[in-house]
Write a structure and sequence with these properties.
The structure holds three protein chains of three kinds.
Chain A lengths: L8 H6 L3 H29 L10 H36 L7 H9 L1 H10 L27 H28 L12 H32 L13 H35 L6 H14 L15 H13 L1 H15 L8 H24 L1 H7 L3 H31 L1 E2 L2 H27 L14 H31 L1 E2 L33
Antiparallel strand pairs in A: 1-2
Helix pairs in contact in A: 2-3, 2-4, 2-16, 3-6, 3-8, 3-14, 4-6, 5-6, 6-7, 7-8, 7-9, 8-11, 8-12, 8-14, 9-11, 11-12, 12-14, 12-15, 14-15, 15-16
Chain B lengths: L1 H38 L25 E9 L6 E4 L3 E4 L4 E9 L6 E10 L7 E6 L5 E3 L4 E10 L9 E10 L1 H11 L1
Parallel strand pairs in B: 1-9
Antiparallel strand pairs in B: 1-3, 2-4, 4-8, 5-7, 5-9, 6-8
Chain C lengths: L5 H16 L2 H11 L9 H34 L15 H29 L8 E8 L2 E6 L4 E5 L3 H6 L22 E4 L3 E8 L4 E5 L4 E5 L5 E6 L4 E7 L12 E6 L1 H21 L6 H20 L23 H10 L15 H12 L12 H8 L1
Parallel strand pairs in C: 1-5, 4-10
Antiparallel strand pairs in C: 1-2, 2-3, 5-8, 6-7, 6-9, 9-10
Helix pairs in contact in C: 3-4, 7-9, 9-10
The chains are: A mainly alpha, B alpha+beta, C alpha+beta.
Chain lengths: 517, 186, 387
């Protein structure tokens, strides 16, 4: 029964194999990452110095909007789904995902969503220009006509995400190898299980929000229009009811990756496994009840502000537990610092710094000054780039030998890490300063006192962009000409079922379930 | 065996996602409206005449509340619109009449809708409107002017810390929307 | 690009030298020059926020030093060596409880001053001395002194507006307070409780002046409040802080805080000026006077969308050059500018322009860039048409 992949293009179009689909997700997300990165380069080039030199403000707004949308929905989320597709069946000893045909669908509708979104660049009115948070009424009454394409694009990627999540939950709950109890699952599987539940719960809310926008624009309802008895602030409540869980959707699988990499290179089991699981669940729960901390300046009554401030501060507790666990995992281990480990350590440090600024922002009175300034931009890039992107890089380097049967170039990997690390900090650390000094976000031009830090930021951004091209080159050269890995387990400290199959992983694995003791 | 379990999981999750979608569209907005009306979360206050509360016979003369009225024209609303009494001093419980002046300065008939908003937002729930022009659409012919009526009383249970209430009315041009409505009603 | 970055490198180098060699006060001075921290501001609220910000910041620094210290020690001390096996411990209930409880207690400690500050910000007890209605427009602010019959718009200063155009050829570093200067200033008295009633005319905006510790969203149809008790005279600058479309980055706020006596004088002068404007409206102007004034008004008000040469932006903002409106009946032209076009970005300028400005800009538009109508309109006609 074991037969290899079909030949030609048909293999990719009709495949139901979790490894093929995982590969396609990963390549798709990398393409989106490059596209979103290109938008970021346009932004940073315009902000290189004060005055308008390259683009019109209108186009600048399209760039910031599309950068956010493409990075969040096109790069980070599909990349983690790709990792999930590849690794979850391997980690729990399942032959494939529970719903292979739906798996194919949930991938293949995704490119159309982004085609639809990107096509707006070539239409009259241009691409979405109302920010990735698309607050009404700028995104409804005052939006370009192309907003309808944006809405359908969001719908399609929402459907894709929901189908992908249902698949993951169904796989994890029903397809585990005998003996693989829930509390024996690798943490990556746990974080993805919780993430998938979050996705199923909140992606429909996002779909609801854009549907209400659609009805306001085309069918005369007034959900968000004060004239007809609606309230623009309601949009923000609904958006962030989706949006706050969404930011944990982006980061939780990253926690899972790092929780696999750090023990492997410390040659020591993960410290506090069960507390890690509980902390993840606690973060997921808290994410549902803190949404309005994104809205401390909309004019909530005192009681509302106090509640959301206290609830938000609480998130620091489970997040702290995770950081302490990782550090204690390293403690008295026997550490080596290959590229995945470097990215993971950088993840812990930089994500914790993002956590500190997050704690500062949870203090509602201070947030009055921070809100919508570059301080916020710095904060969420520390959590999303150093959090999600760095953990993705760690995961890719860590599992690349398993996927391809070839070892990447370690020297190039380390070089890429250091260029990315320096570039990242040069880009985003100064943004804390300009933010505190009062520079609002999403502006195409700025007062001259912000000039020096912005120039540093732009130089850092170009450096970071360059490092990603090196990453791409390293991956391709590994696939084409990397040194063959002779053993099943190229990392001596690595644990887990995925290392018990051959390298490269055969097209079909675990057709007979392994026995887990 | 595993297959039927997978089916069950998929059905449950699909139902969950549909429920969440319906929750976002059909439940959240009305809950938000009710929540706002009761707590004054967005400072909008009631959108219909008070019927469930009797006007209190006792007027609390020990307190005087300064009520400031402001009028705002939204977007391309060219009407003249202003309060006839910019500031009023009222006792809680006292039923007060006032009005806003409006004039359609254009050469075509227009329909407006006024949206109230209160500062501080917690006062919204204590500002009881008996009659208000903001309950209905307000049509004016070309060049027509009108005094639009408002009757209200401030609840004596207004928190002691509030001495100032600002009542803002923003008028929106809903000429097109109200025509669509009439057409669809026919 | 590298050549442009040269002054930056010079400053980096000199700052590094200062950091390395000089005293603490010099370092503080250098940090101020670069602008690395929150402003302390000039109101009790902004100062309280600053104190809270620094408190939380230092707590984070202390925790950070401890956590990263342990981590870096571990990275150095627990590297792989041949003579040592890795430990295999993987749980410790006491530790887990400790690092859940201790952060929780620290958070409770932070919550007290934060709550205190928030209650102060939400104070409604103290009597308000002056109410300002702040209305956000795409892309300018309108200020109304409640009960004083003074109201005006505040745009980005025309000189700055010219410099910020794409490839304007103007070195923006030669313009003082680039992008933070307006044509009219919001003048406020010091040592008074000034309340801002903030709303918007079209989309969301946010009124943000860091030195006053005020940032509040402006929402169409709803009014938000915030207040400031300014303690020192001076000029305080801010910007719109909520994405509001194309020119979101170009609607600054300038607050000028003065002594009460100077404020009263200023209000008097404003009221006097309003009377003069009403008087001027009854005078007759020559074509050339109107045209010259109209050009200034056009560049200040219209050029942002319709372009400096009246060509507009295809698909977004219609051209005035050769348009049927500017070359059609003059009263229709006036009506469109005064009442706006509903459902588009064309605002009703009837309230925003004085009759003289309105007459001037209409005259200018009909006789520029090849529009050659040869006619003009007087302020008195504008006043009559509005009645």
């Amino acid at each position: 029964m074991a037969h290899g992949p079909a030949k030609g293009l048909g293999r990719w179009l009709f495949t139901t194999n979790h490894k093929d689909i995982g590969t396609m997700y990963l390549w798709f997300s990398f393409a989106m990452f490059i596209l979103g990165g290109f938008f970021a380069m346009v932004i940073r080039a315009e902000l290189f110095q004060p005055g308008m030199q390259i683009v019109e403000p209108e186009f600048f707004n399209q760039m910031t909007t599309m950068h956010g949308l493409v990075m969040v929905f096109g790069a980070i989320m599909p990349a983690f789904v790709g990792l999930a597709n590849w690794m979850i069946p391997l980690m729990i000893g399942a032959p494939d995902m529970a719903l292979p045909r739906m798996n194919n669908w949930s991938f293949w509708i995704l490119p159309f969503a982004f085609l639809m979104l990107a096509s707006t660049f070539f239409m009259e009115g241009g691409a979405p220009n109302f920010g990735w948070t698309f607050y009404a009424p700028l995104s409804t009454t005052y939006a370009p006509d192309t907003v309808t394409f944006f809405i359908f694009g969001v719908h399609i990627m929402g459907v894709s995400s929901i189908m992908g999540s249902i698949n993951i939950i169904a796989t994890v709950l029903n397809m585990r190898a005998p003996g693989m109890t829930l509390m024996k699952m690798p943490l990556f599987v746990w974080t993805w299980l919780i993430t998938a539940f979050l996705l199923v719960a909140v992606m429909p809310v996002l779909a609801g929000a854009v549907t209400m926008m659609l009805m306001d624009i085309h069918f005369g309802t007034s959900f968000f229009d004060a004239a007809g008895g609606g309230d623009p602030v309601l949009f923000q409540h609904i958006f962030w009811f989706f949006g706050h869980p969404e930011v944990y959707i982006i980061i939780l699988p990253g926690f899972g990756v790092v929780s696999a990499v750090i023990p492997a290179f410390s040659r020591k089991p993960l410290f506090g496994y069960s507390s890690m699981v509980y902390a993840t669940a606690a973060i997921a729960f808290l994410s549902f009840i803190v949404w309005a901390h994104h809205m401390f300046t909309v004019g909530m009554p005192l009681a509302g502000e106090l509640y959301f401030m206290y609830a938000t501060m609480l998130i620091a507790v489970p997040t702290g537990v995770k950081v302490f666990n990782w550090i204690t995992t390293m403690w008295r281990g026997s550490m080596t610092f290959e590229t995945p480990m470097l990215f993971s350590i950088a993840f812990v440090i930089l994500f914790t710094m993002g956590g500190f600024t997050g704690l500062m922002m949870s203090i509602a009175p201070s947030d009055i000054q921070y809100h919508d300034t570059y301080f916020i931009v710095a904060h969420f890039h520390y959590t999303m780039v150093a959090g999600a992107i760095f953990s993705l890089a760690a995961g890719v380097y860590y599992w690349l030998p398993k996927w391809t049967g070839r070892m990447y170039n370690e020297a190039m990997g380390k070089a890429q890490f250091w260029i990315a690390f320096i570039g990242f900090n040069l880009t985003f650390f100064p943004q804390h300063f300009v933010g505190l000094a009062g520079m609002p976000r999403r502006i195409p031009d700025y007062a001259t006192q912000f000039a020096d830090f912005n120039m540093l930021s732009s130089i850092g951004a170009f450096t970071f962009g360059l490092s990603q091209l090196l990453f791409l080159y390293n991956i391709i050269s590994t696939i084409v000409a990397g040194k063959k890995v002779e053993v099943d387990k190229p990392w001596d400290g690595a644990e887990g079922l995925e290392w018990s199959v051959a390298s490269p992983a055969p097209y079909h694995t675990f057709s007979t379930p392994p026995e887990v003791k | 065996m595993a297959n039927s379990n997978i089916q069950k999981t998929v059905i449950k999750l699909s139902v969950l996602s549909i429920v969440m979608f319906a929750f976002a569209i059909y439940v959240l907005p009305p809950i938000y409206d009710v929540f706002c009306e009761v707590t004054g979360l967005n400072g909008k206050g009631q959108t219909e005449a008070v019927t469930d509360k009797e006007s209190p016979r006792v007027i609390d003369e020990s307190r005087t509340i300064r009520v400031t009225f402001i009028a705002t024209n939204n977007e391309n609303m060219p009407w003249d619109f202003k309060p006839n009494d910019a500031v009023m001093y009222v006792h809680p419980g006292e039923v007060v009449d006032t009005s806003f002046y409006a004039k359609n300065t254009t050469d075509r008939p227009m329909v407006s809708r006024a949206i109230p908003s209160f500062v501080p937002s917690t006062s919204a729930a204590h500002f009881n409107k008996v009659q208000c022009f903001c309950f209905d659409n307000q049509p004016l012919e070309a060049g027509e002017e009108a005094n639009m009526f408002l009757q209200f009383w401030v609840d004596p249970d207004l928190p002691k810390s509030i001495k100032d209430i600002t009542a803002s009315y923003t008028i929106f041009d809903i000429t097109d929307a109200s025509q669509d409505e009439q057409v669809s009603q026919r | 690009m590298l050549r442009r970055a040269k002054p930056l490198f010079h400053r980096l180098l000199s700052s590094a030298l200062v950091l390395a060699l000089c005293s603490q006060s010099a370092v503080a001075e250098e940090a101020k020059r670069w602008g690395v921290n929150l402003t302390q501001g000039v109101t009790p609220v902004s100062q309280e926020i600053y104190g809270l910000h620094m408190l939380i910041f230092w707590i984070c620094v202390v925790i950070g030093v401890a956590v990263f210290g342990v981590m870096i020690y571990s990275i150095i001390a627990h590297r792989k060596t041949s003579d040592r096996e890795p430990a295999q411990f993987h749980e410790h209930l006491g530790l887990e409880i400790a690092w859940t409880l201790v952060p929780f207690l620290i958070l409770i400690g932070m919550a007290f001053p934060a709550t205190k500050a928030l209650i102060k910000i939400y104070d409604t007890e103290e009597q308000v001395d002056l109410d300002i209605v702040v209305t956000g427009y795409q892309w300018k602010w309108k200020y109304e002194y409640l009960g004083k019959d003074v109201s005006f718009f505040s745009n980005l200063h025309p000189e700055h507006n010219e410099a910020r155009q794409l490839d304007s050829g103007i070195d923006v570093k030669t313009i003082p307070n680039y992008l933070l200067e307006t044509d009219t200033h919001l003048v406020l008295p010091i040592k008074k409780k000034v309340r801002f009633l903030i709303t918007a005319n079209d989309v969301l905006h946010a009124w943000f002046v860091p030195a006053l510790g005020v940032k509040k969203d402006a929402i169409p149809g709803f009014v938000n409040e915030s207040w400031a008790y300014i303690e020192e005279p001076g000029i305080y600058r801010g910007q719109c802080a909520e994405l509001c479309g194309k020119d979101h980055g170009f609607m600054p706020i300038v607050v000028k805080a003065v002594e009460q006596a100077e404020f009263d004088q200023w209000i008097g002068a404003q009221q006097e000026q309003a009377r003069k404007i009403a008087e001027l409206a009854s005078q007759t102007f020559t074509f050339d006077e109107l045209y010259a004034e109209g050009e200034a008004v056009y560049n200040r008000v219209c050029a942002a969308c319709h372009g400096p040469t009246g060509e507009g932006v295809p698909g977004a903002f219609p051209a005035i050059k050769g348009s049927p409106v500017a070359t059609g009946p003059i009263m229709d032209h006036l009506s469109l500018v005064a009442n706006g076009v509903s459902g588009t970005a064309m605002q009703a300028f009837g309230e925003q322009l004085t009759p003289v400005e309105m007459a001037a800009v209409i005259t200018f538009q009909r006789n520029s860039w090849g529009n050659n109508m040869g006619d003009s309109i007087q302020p008195v006609d504008v006043v009559q048409a509005a009645q």
